[in-house]
Design goal:
Blueprint (H helix, E strand, L loop, with lengths): L3 H51 L1
């Protein structure tokens, strides 16, 4: 049978995990996804530049 203190400890732990996941989601949305979108554009520009001046 779970005691009140056990439930409080689990609640504190899950709250910490929830905050970490929230930070991870923010990190993904504002840093990783834009980076993954910008990288192909930069590579495409580099390839076009090399073909234009390489020919």
């Amino acid at each position: 049978m779970a005691k009140v203190t056990d439930v409080e400890i689990i609640d504190i732990y899950t709250h910490k995990v929830e905050k970490r996941l929230d930070k991870l989601g923010t990190y993904l949305v504002f840093i990783v996804i834009p980076f993954l979108l910008i990288m192909p554009m930069q590579l495409g520009a580099l390839v076009m530049y090399l073909f234009y001046f390489g020919a």
